[in-house]
């Protein structure tokens, strides 16, 4: 009778040479190109290719015309919206498409809403779906800006320094950008019932850390607890209650970093690539 060791070796050898009938990824294209838009901050730039690059390449392997461009990670919403317009124009020119599907992660959802107010762009947006976007702001912005002057200046200075390295074409403006994400500022600029005419508008929320069974990465432990005290469940950056907009599509059990594929430790089961591919399946089912 073969030993357990020999059976295991046989299985390993078989997997090494075994052929499957259809080994390539299933072809699951969408009608319009998909643009993954990153949010505020440059932490995710530590990943090769930058923010959401791996997720965009995963979508391409499944036949989706996916893009993950970059704009200044520490600039104001208006400046970022103008930069996104340039990136989207390049996507439409390259693909020959008339419209585009936007996935706005975090503050990029607000960038996209601002861009959609432009009559020249509203008709070219087939869908705008946000992921953990602070549609009602985040108290974390108030917390940082409300620190003593020396501490606030230090925090903003660090982010500005990282921003200059991450995006050399333009200087960062962290202070004004943070102020725009405070709850009162967002409420003034973005009506809760505002959507994009002729586009499918929806949102995903998220939660992790305190008050949940989902682990949160060490760098987000402190902001997660600060936010929990001020606004309840959150993903370490944005309160869960702030993320709902248009058609709610559910709540992700993942912190803010894991949602863009940033893995600082083997925590949680959320798979960013699988999530964005699943969203593209939703787009395809809607004819988008």
Protein architecture, described:
The chain has a six-stranded parallel β-sheet with strand order 2-1-3-4-5-6, with helices on both faces. The protein has 288 residues and is α/β, with parallel strands linked by helices. The protein is built from eleven helices and six strands. Helix 3 crosses helix 4.
Kindly report the spatial arrangement of strands forming the biggest sheet: 2-1-3-4-5-6
Distance between the termini: 57 Å
Beta-strand percentage? 5-15%
Order of helices and strands, N to C?
HEHEHEHHEHHHHEHEH
Please, how many helices?
Answer: 11
- Residue ranges: pLDDT <50 for 5 or more in a row? none
Shape by Cα distribution: globular
Outline:
This protein has helices at residues 4-17, 53-61, 77-95, 108-116, 119-122, 139-145, 149-166, 174-179, 183-189, 221-231, 272-285; strands spanning 34-37, 66-67, 100-105, 125-131, 200-207, 247-253. The chain is built from 11 helices and 6 strands.
Strand-helix topology:
Blueprint: H1 4-17, E1 34-37, H2 53-61, E2 66-67, H3 77-95, E3 100-105, H4 108-116, H5 119-122, E4 125-131, H6 139-145, H7 149-166, H8 174-179, H9 183-189, E5 200-207, H10 221-231, E6 247-253, H11 272-285
Parallel strand pairs: 1-2, 1-3, 3-4, 4-5, 5-6
Helix pairs in contact: 2-11, 3-4
Keyword list:
288 residues, alpha/beta, six-stranded parallel beta sheet, 12% strand
